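DoxX family protein, Streptomyces lutosisoli. Tokens?
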Amino acid sequence: MNLALWIAAGLLAAVALTGGVSKTFVPKEKLAAAHGGGWTEDVGGGFVKTLGVLELLAALGLVLPAALDIAPVLVSVTAVCWILLMVGAMITHGRLGESKFVALNLIYLALAAFIAWGRFGPESFTG
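Tokens:
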């Protein structure tokens, strides 16, 4: 179970890193032109960059606290925050009729829920 949680956290961290880098460093106009980036047309560039920075922090928070054994409970907290972020993403993509992205975000949400459940519960770093 511990290995499965580490793999899930690593996969989700990679997703967060990829999304965070693109939202933080790719111009909003270029993101808007990409498949699934239409949502950026309705928000400001600062909002997009803020989401990107949050995703970069999530990438770090899903792995580093446990790997460095510094406040490892932050892995669980980060997973819960990711769940909230994915709910917002699913609502946004749903409003735009992008069901493929809703489904993808649901998978990410499920991974985060698995991590939160596992790290708060049976495979807690505190026990």
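The mean pLDDT is 95.
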